[in-house]
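Researcher: Let's do a round of design. I'm pasting the structure tokens now; please hold your answer until I've finished.
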């Protein structure tokens, strides 16, 4: 049985309320209806392209899905700067789909997706300076974990993750923990850059660990992009400073992942 006492950093206070709001049956039905796209081949994944493009667009990349599919599926050439970061993210998703999620593999994943985002010395390594997450209008969204505490907070998260991975969960409980892992990681913000991309992959990687390959067809990144103002608002509402985070305010954020399959076709 999953016990709250086993968890150090992932809050479970909202699990009961989450279960009262989200229908396990509706979620399972929508999830089971997910199928790969006809355009996918052994060498090309449409939904990995969707994830890579929209997770990148959340971070300000200007690439469009149609252009990326032409590039990735049909080998139409674009300027390298237009596709390079998205190609790396695609490879990182591919790596995640072939490996078990864990401390070492997650750091290795960052070395793939962040090759053209952070300097070589910092790929796969935690930051050593303060981190203030800001908006385009230079407003501070939140202050991440102190660099002194990043490693210990991430160790707690990795340790906590093993409990739900090794526990039999309903699909609803699996979605709850995937979203909470996403949110806790974002608030720690351990890398110099690439945190948002990593967090959204972390969430889906956990889903796939529990629900197998169909989880990679969930278009959560696209949903977060189309709802990006709400996405950031739901992250912001937990309070500004890391020590003051109030995860009892997290329900609106947690509901976004199941909505990404129950409210979209």
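Researcher: That's everything. Go ahead.
Model: Designed sequence:
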């Amino acid at each position: 049985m999953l016990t709250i006492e086993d968890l150090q950093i992932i809050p479970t206070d909202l699990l009961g309320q989450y279960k009262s709001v989200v229908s396990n049956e509706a979620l399972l039905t929508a999830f089971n209806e997910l199928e790969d796209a006809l355009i996918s081949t052994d060498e090309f994944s449409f939904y990995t392209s969707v994830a890579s493009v929209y997770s990148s667009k959340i971070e300000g990349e200007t690439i469009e899905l149609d252009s990326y599919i032409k590039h990735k599926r049909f080998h139409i050439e674009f300027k390298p700067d237009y596709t390079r970061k998205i190609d790396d993210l695609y490879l990182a998703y591919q790596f995640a789909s072939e490996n078990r999620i864990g401390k070492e593999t997650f750091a290795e994943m960052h070395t793939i997706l962040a090759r053209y985002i952070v300097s070589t010395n910092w790929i796969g390594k935690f930051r050593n300076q303060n981190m203030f997450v800001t908006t385009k209008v230079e407003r501070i969204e939140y202050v991440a974990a102190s660099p002194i505490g990043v490693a210990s907070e991430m160790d707690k998260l990795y340790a906590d993750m093993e409990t739900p991975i090794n526990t039999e969960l309903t699909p609803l409980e699996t979605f709850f923990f995937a979203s909470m892992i996403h949110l806790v990681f974002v608030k720690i913000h351990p890398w110099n850059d690439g945190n948002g991309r990593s967090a959204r992959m972390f969430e889906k990687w956990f889903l796939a660990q529990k629900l197998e390959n169909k989880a990679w067809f969930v278009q959560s990144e696209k949903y977060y992009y189309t709802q990006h103002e709400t996405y950031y608002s739901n992250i912001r509402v937990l309070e500004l400073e890391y020590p003051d985070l109030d995860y009892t305010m997290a329900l609106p954020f947690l509901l976004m992942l199941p909505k990404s399959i129950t409210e979209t076709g």
